[in-house]
Write a structure and sequence with these properties.
By secondary structure, this protein is mainly α. The protein contains nine helices and three strands.
Length: about 200
């Protein structure tokens, strides 16, 4: 049976300060993400044969997962995938113009302007009720902004993620408390446009 492990961040917990503080990153990664990994592994013990498939394959077609384990894979597997994806698109110091010219052009084509896109994305994150995520995804050749509840993953809806923001309270509460709008504003300063461009060009 394949065992999932907590991925390394690839940067220190304080690398995103002052926008996301080190203590939040440490708890988010080493506690919350680790819990999803542990619970996914526990759930898969019932059906070790399905670990021959990648997590992405299982999330893209949950019918591959036996019914008694399907919800656990949706929740905990989604938590593992979403967080692993999220860590990679966080970095200070990249910018849209230099690091994501192809994605910039597609955003302007599909949303009319970059400002219109950022407003739509920020509102999707701000107005999402309860815990979840906001995403920029590719849907049949067109970029779209969506939000997802809890640890639901765009792959399960046939969508290809480009980047996302975690709007669970544990992602921001230590520093921003209930001010989700301030956290969303800060997110634009740590979005790794270089990685976003790679994600886009891999599926465009």
């Amino acid at each position: 049976m394949t065992k999932y492990t907590l991925p390394e961040l690839g940067y220190s917990y304080d690398a995103l300060e002052p926008f996301i503080d080190a203590r939040t990153m440490e708890i988010h990664h080493s506690k919350h993400h680790q819990t999803y990994v542990d619970k996914l592994n526990a759930a898969l013990e019932k059906h070790p044969e399905i670990t021959e498939q990648s997590l992405e394959t299982l999330l893209a077609d949950l019918s591959l997962v036996p019914e008694d384990t399907r919800m656990a894979v949706r929740n905990h597997g989604g938590g593992v995938f979403n967080h692993s994806f999220f860590w990679k698109i966080l970095k200070v110091g990249t910018n849209l113009e230099s690091n994501a010219p192809l994605l910039k052009a597609q955003i302007e084509k599909d949303f009319g302007s970059f400002d219109a896109f950022t407003e739509q994305f920020s509102q999707a994150a701000l107005n999402h009720f309860g815990s979840g995520w906001a995403w920029l995804v590719m849907d049949a050749g067109t970029l779209k902004v969506i939000s997802s509840a809890n640890q639901d993953c765009p792959l399960s809806s046939g969508l290809k993620p480009i980047f996302c923001i975690d709007v669970w309270e544990h992602a921001y509460y230590l520093n921003y408390q209930n001010k989700r709008a301030d956290y969303i504003k800060a997110f634009w300063s740590v979005l790794n446009w270089e990685q976003a461009e790679k994600n886009f060009t891999a599926i465009a």
